Amino acid sequence: MKKIDAPARSGAVRRIFSNYGIVFALLAIILLFSALRPQTFPTLGNFGSILQANSAIVFIAFGLMLPLIAGHFDLSIAAMAGFGGILATGMMSRGTIEHWPLAVLIVVLVSAVVGLINGVLVAYVKLNALVVTLGTQSVLFGAILLYSQGAVIYDGIPEGFKAMGQSRPFGIPLPFFFVIAAGLVLWYILYFRPIGRKLYAIGGSEDAARLTGIKVDPMVVGAFVCGSVLAGIGGCIQVAQVGSAAPTSGSEFLLPAIAACFLGETSIRKGFFNVWGTMTAVFLVAAGTTGLFMLGAQAWVQPVFNGVVLVGAILAAKFGGSKTRARNKVLNISRKPTPEQPATASGLSAPVGTSAHS
């Protein structure tokens, strides 16, 4: 019996490491830098700072993840976060809006409109998603400079708004609670509701999804709208945490968000863009860069580290046997066709893959 059970146990262990490799990688990074910097890295203050400083990036990565699941790339997502933050702080600083929750609500509405424009141009006008969102990104960066007049906005920001990004109930940063709440909602919708399974089916093959009766175009528009709203909220959280809004904010969020989505795709729900993989990837990269800075690394290390992680995630996905079509189209990774799981219009039994149409 033992000889029969041993291979099974070995296979189970390999599957665990394969499916949850990103979690083990995060733990390994924490242990490594805890050993190298025992006085500074493994502290509640440092872990709290990592959670607080990167919660906004998780929202932005979630915002990018939704169009990716539907098979499209949204390059404007980071610019939307930057514009959302500058718009909220500008309205409060200039006295246009007295109550900060109303300013956040306006950002949500503006973000939804931007996402709607992107979605309609991609889904109904059939324009290239990369070109459309690249143009939107440029417009948003221009709007940031116009609205801020090229100056940092920091006066007149309500303390209640700052508390949204800076307070730590029970010693845990408040933005992290927002991240968990958003993650749970997305997880439930994507994995337990028909709308989520249909979104994965659209990413797998729009033509096949149409044949099963799925209304593809409204779903794609919805993915862009929801993604843009999440990015706008992330921008508000980021400026609340910092206490000011810079006209250059936004551009630095795109690469970490892309890296998180593709790194998260390699674990937990392997081969699919997924909520918990994306969130874990953000904090893995953040823990790695924080540890490197504590070892004396210079500022240029962070973008280099993000780029290495992104390329590494793509390589891991390619050689890890992932069957998603996203890498075939976006990253030009050639694979032989594999049978896809059948789906029905009323309820798909499981995601059939993702494809990011460029």
Automatic annotation (TrEMBL):
Name the UniProt record assigns to this protein: ABC transporter permease
One GO term describing the cellular component: plasma membrane
Entry's localization field: Cell membrane
CDD domains: TM_PBP1_transp_AraH_like
InterPro entries per the UniProt record, alphabetical: ABC_transp_permease (IPR001851)
Membrane topology classification: Multi-pass membrane protein
Organism (species): Arthrobacter mobilis
Annotated Pfam families: BPD_transp_2
GO MF annotation list: transmembrane transporter activity
Keyword Membrane tagged: yes
Chain residue ranges for the region called Disordered: 334-358
Signal peptide bounds: none
Keywords attached to this entry: Cell membrane, Membrane, Transmembrane, Transmembrane helix
Top-level taxon in the UniProt lineage: Bacteria
